[in-house]
Amino acid sequence: MNITKQEVEKVARLARLELSDAEMERVTRQLDSILGYVAKLDELDTGSVVPTTHTQQLVNAFRDDEIKPSLPREKALANAPRDNGESFVVPRIIS
Amino acid sequence: MELHALTLLQARKLLEQGDITALQLTEALLERIDAVEDRVKAYLHLDRDGALARAAEADSERREGRAGALCGLPLSIKDVLCTEGLPTTCGSRMLENFIPPYDATVIRRLKEEGAVLLGKVAMDEFAMGSTSENCAFKVPENPWKPGYVAGGSSGGSAASVAAGECLASLGSDTGGSIRQPASLCSVVGMKPTYGRVSRFGLVAFASSLDQVGPLARDVADCALLMNVISGYDPRDSTSVNRPVPDYTASLKDGLGGIRIGVPVEYFGAGLDPEVEKTVRAGIDMLREAGAEIVEVSLPHTQYCVAVYYLIAPAEASSNLARFDGVRYGYRNMEADSLIDMYCRSRSEGFGDEVKRRILIGTYALSAGYYDAYYKKASQVRTLIMEDYQKVFSSCDLVVSPVTPTPAWKIGYKSDDPLAHYLSDILTISANLAGVPGISVPAGFSSDGLPIGIQMQAAHFNEEVLLRAAWNLEQRAGVREKKPQL
Lengths: 95, 485
What we know:
The complex is a heterodimer of chains A (95) and B (485). Chain A is 35% helix and 0% strand. Chain A has 95 residues and is an all-alpha fold. Chain B has an eleven-stranded mixed beta sheet, sandwiched between helices.
């Protein structure tokens, strides 16, 4: 077993996901199968191999530091589940 | 004349000659959609009024001599690309009501050239899947055999092109999501070099792998769309600033002097005999077109799926962290604390496959497992890139199957995510290495299901890729065949 139910619970907490008991059972089994498969990478000695995070050699992707128009507030808020006309409204966390 | 069955170039010629108007063409496409959509199930959002209005504008532009390269040509768009004022759901409940306030750069470029956007088409949720069965709203079906998958994640794009519900489409390809459905639906699909086409406005799945590309009826249309969407974009920090050639200019040149490698690893166990036979016949056609065929090796091919299913979920877990119910997207309204709102919104908004990949990615990036999983996968990715560099030092192209089998029945493999993942085994490496790839229709199985051929090239060598694809297309003789709907 590569991954336990307790580890899946911990990862789900980190990922801000809630899983039912049935989902937890199923996902643990599936993740175990997937992690068992990816373990084949251990066959390779990569001690001296540099990791690749990007396939192109891009050195500096900065744009010129110029002031440009922002998204208008009403457009920025247009898709908000709740707003007060100025900001996004979310449940309070400090009582 | 069946207007819905035209290629982009055929339709453009008729428009230029004044034989048809953009309005007539768009109306014909909308009629076709009305006639077949109940069987194809490609469109998540059809913008009937917007398309007709845009077509009327295109007719005006043409009359005034302002016609762009795509003036009046109706296209569908994968629902992962932001379209100002049109829903962009990514096939997810999470974004069911999201209407972007801006256009993706590729959409802006299509519009600047006069394209008519018919609507947004179905896809696997957040582009995660190989069949489009993970779409939260509808599952597109294969126009060649309803009840069979169209492929994924750009299944709606491929199905809409094959079914005559648009003249061409844009999709996105993270592990084969343009090439694989193109192969399963007998259309041409191209994944450009990473950095060639802007990703601005493409909702991110795995940022180091995602690339936007065209799906079209033939290679010439594919080249035309590449001309429009390619090029540097200062809004995308991964966009590469180098000149864009005219991809249509040298399509019809022969393949004399072109050296094509056939990787031995792509013809191993699990490859359907009919697929192998069709691909081998295609290789013979490329030889007849003047190419030299040699056997090559990409020895780390067997590790590609494992590398992909660590890197892609790791990047996805980070990219999808933004879907927390705060600024846009689905929010659970009953939660009584912020953290509870995050958890309930994400758990109710995301589907099973997305949750599965977020969990894999979070696990692979978490303390104690990072070196064993994410770093290891990134190192093997280097080895895969080195394989390609070696092959492309002596060859111009690599040719192979696109998928191990033709399309399969909807629902088959649905309980086994690993079985789904393995269906991408022949396309993933191009994304890991960032090289361009194309799928060209090459034949049909005895069941009448399409089979494609994949070609890959070195970075930014799309011209040669398209030329080889065009030559193969002429010889394969399947371009005129249409699905019976």
